[in-house]
Structure formats: C-alpha cells, structure tokens
Amino acid sequence: MSKFAYYPGCTLEQLAQEYDESARLVGKFLGLEFTELPDWSCCGATPSHHKNYLLSLALAARNLILTEEQGLDLVAPCPACSNRFKTAHHDLISDFDLLKKLRQKFDLNYRGEIGIFSLLEVISNLPFDLIREKIVRPLDRLRVVPYYGCFLVRPPEVTQFDDPENPTSLDNLMELIGAQVVPSEYKTECCGGVLGITNNQVISKLSGDILETAQKAGAQAIVVACPLCHQNLDLKQDVARSGRNLKPMPVFYFTQLMGLAFGINPKDLGIPKHTVNPMRLTNSLIGVRS
Amino acid sequence: MISLTKPDINFVQEVETLSGQKVAHCYQCGKCTAGCPFAFLMEDAPHKIIHLVQLGLQKPVLSSPAIWFCASCETCTTRCPKQVDVAKLMDTLRELSHKAKIIGEKSDVRLFTEIFLNSVKTKGRAHGVGIMARYNFESGHLFKDANKLMPMVRQGRVSLRQKKISGIQNVRSIFAKAKNLKSF
Amino acid sequence: MRIGLFVCHCGNNIASTVDVKKVVQAGLKLPYVVFATDVDYVCSAPSQKNIEEAIQEKNLNRVVIAACSPHVHEETFRRVLKRAGLNPYLLQVANIREQCSWIHDNVIFATIKAIDLVKMAVAKVSHHEPLVAPKVGVEKRALVIGGGIAGIQAALDIAEGNIPVTLVEREPTIGGAMAKLDKAFPTLDCAACILTPKMAEVNQHENIELMVYSEIEDVKGYVGNFEVKIRKKASYVDYEKCVGCGICEQKCPSKASSKFNLGRGDGKAIYISFPQAVPKVATISPKHCIYFQRQKCRVCEKLCPADAVDFKMQDEIVTERFGAIVTATGYSLFDYSQYGEYGGGRYPDVMSGLQYERFLSPTGPSKGEIKRPSDGKKPETIVFVACVGSRDEAKGRPYCSAVCCMYTAKQAILTKEHLPESQIYVFYIDIRATGKLYEEFVRRAQEEYGVQYVRGRVSKIYTDNGKLKVRGADTLLGEPVEVDADLVVLATGFGASKGASTLAKKLGISHDSYGFFTESHPKLKPVETNTRGVFLAGACQSPKDIPATVAQASGVASKVLGALSKDQIETSPLVAAVDARRCIGCFQCLGVCPYKAIEEVALNNGAKIAEIIPTLCQGCGLCVATCNPGVISLNGFTDNQLISEVEAIVKG
Lengths: 290, 184, 652
Known about the structure:
- The complex is a heterotrimer.
- By secondary structure, chain A is α/β, with parallel strands linked by helices.
- Chain A is 50% helix and 10% strand.
- The longest helix of chain A has 18 residues, at 53-70.
- Chain A folds into two domains: 3-120, Glutathione S-transferase Yfyf (Class Pi), Chain A, domain 2, CATH 1.20.1050; 136-286, Rossmann fold.
- Chain A starts with a strand and ends with a helix.
- By secondary structure, chain B is mostly helical.
- Chain B is built from ten helices and no strands.
- The two termini of chain B are 35 Å apart.
- In chain B, 46% of the residues are buried.
- At the A-B interface, helix 1, helix 3, helix 4, helix 6 and helix 11 of A face helix 5, helix 6, helix 7, helix 8 and helix 10 of B.
C-alpha cells in the first residue's frame, strides 16, 4: 500500500510549508506516491466542532468523499486534520442514522470505505529495512525528545494508532535514523493547541513545561509531527521560555530529521525557516562546519 | 442558596441528546479535572461543569467561562473510567451556549473561532495570516505577536492572498445547511 | 382423572390484578376439573393442610396450583401432595404472579391471561404420570479446593463434623493471600499470627488430608458421587523427607524474583514460600533452576541433609471419590500496568497494595523496613491511590472490590507507625467501611494518625528527578492538585483467581463475566452453586474481607455436613431419557449436553446408541430439542404435555 491521497491542510499550505516540503520529499524517497487531493477544502480543525458538530462532520466528510472518489486511502500530515477525518469516519460508520442525516441534509454520500492515516502512522508502519536502506548519514550526534502532542494518539478508539499514554512510533523512527531518544514524561502532554493562538499564558505554561523537561533531560532538540505544536514550541518559543531559565532549543519536524538522515539538503527540507535557529545543531549533525 | 427543587430536565435531555452522553454516568471522581491541562484557567473545573449539568443548572453552566478554555486535547475522554466523552460534552455546551445566547466567554476564543470559520466559508480554506491579522484587529490586541511578523515574512510564511477553491459553493452550502440544523 | 384447582390470592400480589374468583369459575368448567377454590395464601401452613384434606376428601388424583413462580414454591407443593398420599409429580403450577399479575395492570386482560395459564396447566397435568425420584448413595468425604483462609476454615469445620476432608492447594503451602499480609484490619492483628495456628491445625487434624502443590485435573460424577482426578505436581523435593531447614535455598546460586513477594524482591529457584509455611518444605521452580535450564549445579541435592531433592520426580495423578466439593480458590489482583497513565508498570516506586504489604511485612523483601525500591531511601511522602482497577468501566471492572478502602487505611496507619514523620495522602472517591468497627478505623487513620484524605481520582503519575509527581483532583475544592511523592501505592482491585474459568468448567459450575463463581441465589443461597454438591466460599464468589470469608466458610461447612449426613440422596426424576428402540446413534445430543450426561452405549448387536445418565442430567432439554428423529423425551415436559398446553389456549 504505497499510493495515497495526500491532504496537506490549510496550515501546511501556508504557515507550515517546511512540513509539507519535507513530507513530500521523504515520501518520495520512501517510495510512497502522494497525490494531492484535488480541490480539497478545510477539514474544519478545532473551530468547526467548537461551533457546530454537524458543520464539523460535513466539512470533514466532503474531503473523505473526494478521497473515496479517487479510490485511494487518505494521509494527512497535520494531526488535527487526521483526527477530524478519523472522528468523522468513526462517527459515521458507527451510526447509521448519522450517515443518513449527512446524506439527506447535506447531500453528502459517504460509503466509509477508505483508510485514513496520519503521516506519522504511514511512515512508522513501513518496514524498517526499507527506511534503513535510505539512511546515508545517521544522526548519531542528536539527543532528541520525541513529542507527540494530543491528536495523533487520543482518543484511542478513534485514532487506533500507537498508545495514548506512552506512544513509541516516533521514538522508534528517531532511533532508526540513529538519534539518541531522550525519554520524556511529557510526550503526550498538550502544548496548548488552538488556545495557544489567542492565549500566551497557555503557551508559557504548557509549551514551557515541555521545553523545560526536555532541556533538563539533556535533549538538544524536540521533534514533532504537528504544525500547531511546532508553532507553539518554535515560533512562540520566546513566550514558552518566558519566566524560565532556558536556552533556545530547536524544534524539528520528524520528516526533516528523516530527510537529513537520507542525505537531503537542509534547505530543501525547510529547516532554515524555523524561528529558533536550528542551523548550528543541524550543521553539526550533518558534519558541516558552522 | 441554589434551589434543586425544579431541575431543568429539558436542559439535561438536550445536552444528552446532542452529545450522545448520559451525564448520570459521571460519578464525579474528578479524573478529568486532574488531567486537564487547562484546568488552571477554569473557574469551574471539568467535573464541576458536568455536575452542574447533572443538576440541570442551565444558566450557571452555559455562562461559565470555563467551557471556552477547553482545547479538545481529549485527555479527559481518554482516561474517564465511566467512558464519558467529556470533550464532546464541552463541545455541546459551547453549541448550546450559542443557541441560548448565554455566553460567559471572556477570552476571545469565540472571536477566533468565528474569524477562522469565516475564512473557510469565504475561500474554502483557512487563510492563516489573514485570520491572525483580522483577529488582532477585531480583538483590539493590535500588536499581539507583532514581533512574529517579520520572522514569518522572512520565513516565507506570509501569503497575502488565499485562492478560492473550485468547489467553494459546496463548502458554502455546507455552512448554510449546518446553520439551520440542530446539531444531531 | 380428577383434577383439583387451587387459585392463590397471594394477598394483593395476585388478587389486585387478577380476578381470582373468575379464574376459579372458569377452572370449574375445564375438562376433568372436579374441584376448584381460591385461597388467600396457598403456601401458608393452614392452606397446605386444607389442600391435603381436599385431595383426600375429593379423591383428587391431579393438582393444579395457580400461584407464584414454581421457582418459589413448587417443592413446597410437591411435599403437600406427598403428605396427602399422592405422587408429588402429579402437580402443575400455573405462574399467575411473576408471569401475570406482577407484569400487567389491566385487570380484565390479566384475568383472561390467568385463565389461559390455568387452562394450560390443567391440560398439561392431565398428561402427567407418576414419577419416582431415584436415590443414590453418598460418599462421605469432602473435597476442598484452595488452601487460603476460606478453604482452611471450611476444611476445619467439616473435619470437626467427623467427615474426612481432602484439602487441595496449588501452591507449595497453604495460607493463600492472607499469609502475605502483615496485619489485618480493623484489629491490626498480625495476620500470620492468627492464621498459622489454623494452618497448623489443618496439617495435624486427623480428618484432614492435605495435598499441596496439587491441582484438580478432572471431575466426573454428580452429588454424592464425584470422581476427581488430582494432579500432584512434581516439586522435585520429596515433601515426606524434607525438614524445611532452608539450606538449599540459602546456597542455591540461581536468581529469580520472589513469587511470594509478588515480583518485588529476590528469590531462588528452590524456595520455601515463607517462614511459617505449612508444610514447611522446599520446592524447585524448573524455569529458574540452573540444573533444569543448563544441566549444571545440583548444589541443593548435594547439601540436603535429608536427601530430599529428587530431580527425577514426575507429576502424579491420583483419583479420589467425594460426596461434596467446596471451591475456595480465592482471587487475583488487577494488573496495574494496564494504566499507562500511572507509568504502565515502569516505575519501581509505584506498586500495588499487596506488594506494599510485603514491604511492610517483617518477612518481606526489605524485612519490614519501608524503603524506596529505586534508591533504597526512606520515603517522606507516600501517596495511596484508591480504586485502581475497581469502579472502572473503561477497564472492564465496574464493581467495587470491597476491601481496598479498608486495607488502604490500614496501610496508611502502619506506614505512620513505621515512619511517624512521613506525609501520607490517600486519593479516594468514596469510603466503603461497612463492617464492625470499620468506619471508626478509617476515621482513626485521619484523626489520630493525620493521614490526609483527598477526594478525587489521580489522572497521571510520572517521574521528575527521582520524585513521583501525582496529578490528582480535589473535587471538594473543585481543583486539580499535585503531590510530589516518594512512593505511590495503588490499591488494586480483586478479580477472579487465575484459572478460575477452567476450574469452573471442570466442576460444571457457572461464573459471571469477571470469572467470579455464581452462587445459587445472591441473597438466600450464598454458598451453593446451581450444580448440586458443589459449593463455594470466599473471594472466589465475590470480593470480600476476612470476617465475611470465614463466616461464609463456616456456612459452607454446615451445608456440606448436611449434604453428607444422609446415606442416600434423592435426585430429580425430571430428566431426559432416550427411546433406545428408535435412537439412530447420530450423537448430536452428546455434543450439546452441558453436563456430560450422555454417553455412547453399545447394544448387543454392536450398534451404538445414546444413553442419558439420569443422575447427571439436569433436565435442561437441549438434547430433546436437538434430537432430529425426536426420540428423546423429558420427564415432566413430554411432547404430549407441551402440545396439550398449546392446544388448550389455541383451541379455546
């Protein structure tokens, strides 16, 4: 199973382009065929179900139906999107009346026949040998904390992926590419999510705790799989670090680290775009003098 | 003195129908509150919100600012020993608060939600920078995260326009239809 | 054919919804009914006497009683017929209470339905033939499975009734879970001190045969006549020779984790369970033994002064006969590693209540000194978390385990005694302290010992720099709270003992979805099962504390002594029988019989047919329904009888 309908989502298209670029590159390297879902629309993310459940269901379902028309499975790098899609799918296939309501009131006809995956899920499900043979420079000088956030693993009946309390898929991938995984008790503690956009107090407490524990454990960087986690931890790291005595700490997307291990140029992976300067660490990992 | 004599049974039923959850299942163990990353912002902790619903106290619960501080991180739902979908209940209470026009929110979260959804309705996709700019303007926090603007421009994250998708009518019709429906 | 009809008012229970007098009138019009009357309470002594007199005076030869469910009083009414000189099976009960007056409220329709039910009963009873209950002999020996406090008490009480008891225990020592306790609530008695005299008594009692390290292999037969195969497992130490000196354990070079200490603390491949073990003998665990794994060592054999080590030992199966069986197989504890949010079993300083109890015990891994397993330091702050794997639907354990509130209070008090300077928190949801002096005990923990009770569950336990961070809630304050702890004790809940459902199958008894054995009636028959001759006692039935367990064990002993006091017992004649002339030998019936009551029997001409063993048959009717040629009939529920019921209401 290597052909997917690729759903970038609004954030990857604009604010988190480096995740999109590195995801597509790494996908290609691994022999995954990602075809962008034609004319996809916003999944609704968190604001939709905060406003109106049926609205959130229908917005998500439109994309599920488009995917069904392609006859492919769906992969979404952004966990908010993958979570919305999995939730819509889960709710629709477990409630026949809801499926009917979607058809009758929204004229949206979902058959429930597609598979829906987060990008981390697809890549971590690949045979490790396949990934291993692409590695040209193991990142063996990297001490990294894998940070999962909320939407990849919760709630477990919907996400059906890894473990909601102590997930290891990202840990395993990082070890595979040679990095030293620094264990963290904050793997699935919320970074602040959507509330971080409007509320800096949330970022300074929640994202701050994640940064602090990572740094105290001796990590050099944090690796994430979510653009909103990345924004709270990287773009707004000054807010996260406020009131704490912490050094700046680069935050990478897992696809970027994998790309580095595959020998891809940091620039092509969008690494220089990060707010907290990642270049010194990156160059040391790939053996370039800074 | 809170009178429990005439509980608002209709309210309780409405919450239960919309959320698909039976609030009587909650035995107030507090595990949701204990694990909620945002409880520190909430005047009424999550278990207390549920108890207010159990007692049928519509106005106090819908006007509680607490329900607007839920980020749907799903920690509560994942760990609840009675398998109550607490996050879903929060969604339902937000929806009902809109419907009843009893809004206790003080944090501009609703404003952000409206601006975001408006962007989706207009273009089919959420225009990140446009939403942030409009939020700053309408919330009056004109210079919020102003120090982020230049870094973002340098990083190429600022796209001044958002193209409309072809199927924009489909999206707009979804919004129109949802508006008139009571959410399941 | 002279049928008598008695319609009961049952006070208001029937009469307020069914017009009893109308039913009597309708009954009188039915075929063969020569006498009909209504009675206030048919089960009362005077009414029973009246029925006896009516049978004799009116020369009745069939009786229909329209009253409550046969489950309640069919036996009572059978005895009435017997006293009146009539075969007790010439009776049919029409249930016009549970199946009529209690479930309807329209008097007109309820009365019509009651009349229909009576019509059915009258038609059926006219097809009844006298039946004779077979009698079987009784083996006056009892088997008790499980040597914990329940089994020990039951064995002692039965033995005192002069009945020989065989007590089978699968561990090398008796004592069960109670032997692992340091002290017992609410008295704070030393558990071993009150248990060991009983254990010694079991070992010495002339009427008790103790078989340790043995398990039930197979059970055949029926009440009064059970044939049980018991597997005496190979311990590789001759228990007759072993004197329990312990040299072998001292010198054994292997490493294992101590089973008695529930995985906390080191052990050896050859071990004596605990100092007061009964019998005090050593046992070898092959999977930890260097000789069994790598064919080296044999130090224990060389050093044993009694020459008791025997690596060539084999399992031995013995067959014994018993009249009654008691299962007292105890419980197991919920595996707390299922809670990922509590560390998933990864944190050494987070442990279960029973594991902590071993640390409190002077015979435990730290000799009774409370130390953090991670670094051996004395803990300053200790947190107890209640309801771990209890009252948790998400984990499939919605029930309350009955004892955890009490053992948590006990452990909190004992901790304060060991470490008076320590700070102790108990996160609870409700306090269940229903026994004698229990409430006072829990209050003592809070008022006298200063244990801080916090009302709320714990959402997450994680480590930070050697400390355990406990994130809980104080619902009374309405706030999340956090405690930095050095040690966390999880009050894990009770579940069924390992292997319970397999044993249940062997014994032919039922269990609930959690594996707890099912009692015959939850209120009135707590120590019997629905399988005659098999009884139960203790936590194998449901979570309970020691006082309740001992009471139930003594109760089960009285039932066993009663069952075995007769030389003969009657079994029910309402069993199925195969028409041997018409059986085609397909044996479909054998495949569906839940009681293993059907066997293949060879006829003189070599053909094989099915035969039902009447004493094993419970009259469930599965074989009757399964038999394609229809050659099996069920006494008391024959085809003619059942068809007549249908015709009575269909043909009016």
